[in-house]
Design a protein that fits this description.
Layout: H1 18-27, H2 31-35, H3 45-63, H4 67-72, E1 76-78, E2 81-83, H5 88-97, H6 116-129, H7 131-150, H8 153-164, E3 169-173, E4 189-192, E5 198-208, E6 218-224, E7 237-242, E8 244-246, E9 252-255, E10 258-263, E11 274-287, H9 293-329, H10 346-378, H11 382-418, H12 429-436, H13 446-459, H14 464-482, H15 488-510, H16 513-518, H17 520-546, H18 551-564, H19 568-577, H20 582-585
Helix pairs in contact: 1-3, 1-10, 1-17, 3-6, 6-7, 6-9, 6-10, 7-8, 7-9, 9-10, 9-11, 9-12, 10-11, 10-17, 10-18, 11-12, 11-13, 11-17, 13-17, 14-15, 14-17, 15-17, 15-18, 15-19, 17-18, 17-19
Length: about 600
C-alpha cells in the first residue's frame, strides 16, 4: 500500500515579502510627492517600515494559522445566524484591537490617516495570510468610503466611528438573481415611510460577509428602487440598512427585518460566508440623492476593485511561497545543479522565477494605482489632483484585472510545482488555486474591466489619459538610459513595449465599436505587460540612485521581466491588427460543433 506524507498545517508557513514591498513603495512610485503633502506630515520611510513589519508579524502569527482550517471548516448558517469558521471571531477581534482597518482612513473620522499605498502593502499581507477573513475588513473599508462621501452628517456621525475601527462591519448588497453585472434590472423595492426612513423589500445574492458573528453589527449598503423611479440603472437608489438598530447614543437596539436565508457552496474562499439575504420591509436610510445609487455605490466599488487586484497578488504570493518551500523539501530525480531537492531542476527554477516576477509586476501596478489615488485625494494643487484622478481611473481596471489574473496564473503554476501532491487538498496548494479564482470574477468581471478601460477610460476622452501615461513611460525610459546601472536589456525592452502600446492605442481609438470591444482584453494585457515592466525599471533606477542594498537583486528580476513578460505585449498586437469581427464570423449555431 502506497504511503504519501502530506504537509501538516503548521508546515504551511507564510512569510510576507516585506523587503520587496518596501522597495516598491520607496522606489517605484513618486513617494516624495505623496509624503510632501501637508496631510501626510510626519510620515516617513522609518514609519512605513515599522508599519509593514508589524503587519508582517500580525499576518503570520494571527491570521495565517487559520487559513487551512477555515477552508476545511466553512461558516455555517444555524437558526438564521451565520457562525464563522472556528477562530475567525477571535482573529478578527485581534485585527480590530490592532487598528489595522483604519490605517488609511482620514484622521477626521478616527483613522490613522496614512497614505493608501501603505494600506496596499499591509492588506496584501493580510489577504495572503487569510483571504477569506480579509474580505470582511475590505468591504467595511469600502463601505466607510461610500458613507463618508455621500451620506448626511447625521448618518456619518452615527455609523462611522465604529465602522472606521472595525467594531462594526460593512457589506455591499448589489446582486440579485436577475441583476448581476448589469444592475439595471434590480427589483428590490424601497418605499418612503414619510419619517426619513424607507422600507426595503427584496432578495440579494452573493453577499460577501452579509451575516456573521465576528462583529456586533453589520451595516449593509443596499441598492433598491423607489415606486416611481425610472427604469434601468437610472432609477436605482442606495440605502443604509443596519442589522441592529442604533439609537442616538450609539447603543444597539432591535434587529432589523432582514436575515441570511442561505449560504453558497463555493469553489474557494470557504471561510468567507457568501449569503443570500432576504429583506422584508427592513428599515433603511437614503444615502446620496434619489436615483443616484449606482454612482454612490461606485465610490465603494472602485476602492474594492483596486484591493481585489491586491488580493490576486496576495494569494499568488502565498502560492509562490508554498511552491518555494515544497521545491526546497521535495527530492525527486537527479538534478543538473547537484541540489538534492527539485529546486535544482531548471524547469522548477524557471517556474519559480515566472511566479515571482509576474507577482512583482502586478504588485507594482497596484501600488501605482494607489499612489495616483493618494495624490488625487490630497494634493493641494487642483491641476495635479485632476490629472491624478484621470490616472487613478485609468489604472484601477488594469490593477484589478491584471492583479487577479496573475493570481490565478501563479496559483496554477504553484500547484504544478507540487506535481501530483498539489492536486490533493492536504498540501494546501489546491486551496490557493481555488481561492484565487474568484478575484477575476467579483467586483466587476475582468472582461468588464477591459471594456471599462477601452470604452470609458480610452475612447471617451480620445486617449488623452493613456497618452499622458505613455509620456511618463518615456520619462522612465530616459531615466534608464541615463542611469549608471547596466539597464540596456531593460531599456531596450521598454522602448519596444512603448512602441507596441502606442500602436495598440491608435488601433483601439480608430476601431469601430465591435472591433474595439473584441480587442478590449488583449489591449488591457498589452498595457499591463508594458507598464508593469516600466514601474519595475523605475524602482531599480531610483534604488540605484540612493544606493539601496536590494537594488542588485531587483535588477535581476527586472531583466527577467524584460525578457519574459514585457515581450508578451508585442505578441498580442497581431490580434488587434486583424479584423476582429472574426470573433463573430463563426456561426453561433455551430459553436458546439462544425
Amino acid at each position: 500500500m502506497c504511503h504519501i506524507t502530506f504537509l501538516a498545517e503548521e508546515d504551511m508557513s507564510f512569510t510576507p515579502p516585506v523587503k520587496l514591498i518596501k522597495f516598491l513603495i520607496e522606489h517605484s512610485i513618486d513617494l516624495d510627492s505623496i509624503l510632501g503633502m501637508p496631510i501626510f506630515e510626519g510620515v516617513n520611510m522609518d514609519l512605513i517600515g515599522d508599519v509593514l513589519s508589524a503587519a508582517s508579524n500580525f499576518s503570520q502569527n494571527k491570521w495565517a494559522p487559520l487559513n487551512w482550517s477555515g477552508d476545511q471548516n466553512p461558516a455555517k448558517l444555524i437558526d438564521g445566524q451565520v457562525i464563522s469558521s472556528p477562530g475567525f471571531k477571535e482573529a478578527y477581534k485581534d485585527f480590530v484591537d490592532a487598528e489595522w482597518l483604519s490605517i488609511a482612513t482620514s484622521t477626521e473620522v478616527g483613522g490613522m490617516g496614512l497614505p493608501q499605498v501603505i494600506k496596499v502593502g499591509t492588506d496584501e499581507m493580510f489577504y495572503a495570510a487569510n483571504m477569506a477573513l480579509g474580505l470582511c475588513p475590505m468591504l467595511t473599508s469600502s463601505a466607510v468610503k461610500a458613507i463618508l462621501a455621500h451620506a448626511e452628517s447625521s448618518i456619518r456621525n452615527k455609523y462611522l466611528p465604529k465602522m472606521v475601527c472595525g467594531e462594526w462591519t460593512g457589506a455591499m448588497c448589489l446582486t440579485e438573481p436577475q441583476a448581476g453585472s448589469d444592475l439595471g434590472p434590480v427589483r428590490t423595492k424601497a418605499v418612503d415611510n414619510g419619517d426619513g426612513t424607507y422600507s426595503i423589500t427584496g432578495q440579494k445574492i452573493y453577499i460577501t460577509w452579509g451575516d456573521h458573528d465576528v462583529a456586533d453589527n453589520i451595516i449593509h449598503l443596499v441598492l433598491a428602487r423607489l415606486p416611481d423611479a425610472p427604469l434601468g440603472s437610472k432609477g436605482i437608489s442606495l440605502f443604509l440598512c443596519p442589522k441592529f438598530m442604533v439609537d442616538e447614543k450609539g447603543e444597539l437596539g432591535s434587529k432589523n427585518s432582514f436575515s441570511a436565508i442561505g449560504l453558497e457552496h463555493k469553489l474557494g474562499i470557504h471561510g468567507s460566508p457568501t449569503c443570500v439575504m432576504e429583506f422584508s420591509s427592513a428599515k433603511g436610510w437614503l444615502i446620496g440623492e434619489v436615483n443616484q445609487g449606482l454612482s454612490c455605490m461606485f465610490t465603494m466599488m472602485n476602492e474594492a476593485r483596486l484591493f481585489v487586484g491586491v488580493q490576486g497578488v496576495a494569494i499568488g504570493e502565498r502560492a509562490y511561497q508554498a511552491a518555494l518551500q515544497y521545491s526546497n523539501d521535495r527530492v525527486q530525480g537527479r538534478t543538473i545543479s547537484g541540489k538534492d531537492a527539485i529546486i535544482g531542476h531548471p524547469d522548477i527554477r524557471r517556474s519559480l522565477m515566472d511566479m515571482k516576477v509576474k507577482l512583482l509586476g502586478a504588485r507594482a501596478v497596484c501600488l501605482a494605482a494607489a499612489a495616483a489615488g493618494d495624490i488625487a485625494s490630497h494634493s493641494t494643487d487642483e491641476d495635479i489632483r485632476k490629472n491624478a484622478h484621470v490616472r487613478e481611473a485609468l489604472l484601477t481596471p488594469i490593477a484589478k484585472s491584471y492583479g487577479s489574473d496573475i493570481g490565478v496564473e501563479v496559483s496554477s503554476i504553484g500547484l504544478q510545482v507540487h506535481g501530483g501532491m498539489g492536486f490533493v487538498e492536504e498540501t494546501g496548494a489546491a486551496q490557493h488555486y481555488r481561492d484565487s479564482r474568484i478575484a477575476p470574477i467579483y467586483e466587476g468581471t475582468n472582461g468588464i474591466q477591459a471594456i471599462d478601460l477601452v470604452g470609458r477610460k480610452l475612447r471617451r476622452d480620445g486617449g488623452s489619459g493613456m497618452h499622458a501615461l505613455i509620456v511618463d513611460l518615456k520619462k522612465i525610459y530616459d531615466l534608464a538610459n541615463e542611469s549608471s546601472y547596466n539597464l540596456t536589456d531593460c531599456s531596450s525592452a521598454l522602448k519596444e513595449g512603448i512602441q507596441t502600446l502606442e500602436r495598440a492605442t491608435d488601433i483601439i481609438l480608430q476601431a469601430d465599436e465591435i472591433d474595439a470591444l473584441s480587442s478590449a482584453t488583449p489591449y488591457l494585457n498589452i498595457v499591463a505587460s508594458v507598464i508593469s515592466g516600466a514601474f519595475i525599471i523605475k524602482a531599480v533606477v531610483n534604488g540605484a540612485i540612493v544606493g539601496d542594498e536590494n537594488t542588485d537583486n531587483m535588477l535581476s528580476l527586472c531583466r527577467y521581466h524584460a525578457k519574459s513578460i514585457m515581450p508578451m505585449a508585442k505578441n498580442s498586437i497581431e490580434f488587434l491588427s486583424s479584423p476582429n469581427k472574426l470573433v463573430f464570423d463563426f456561426p453561433m449555431e455551430q459553436l458546439a460543433d462544425l
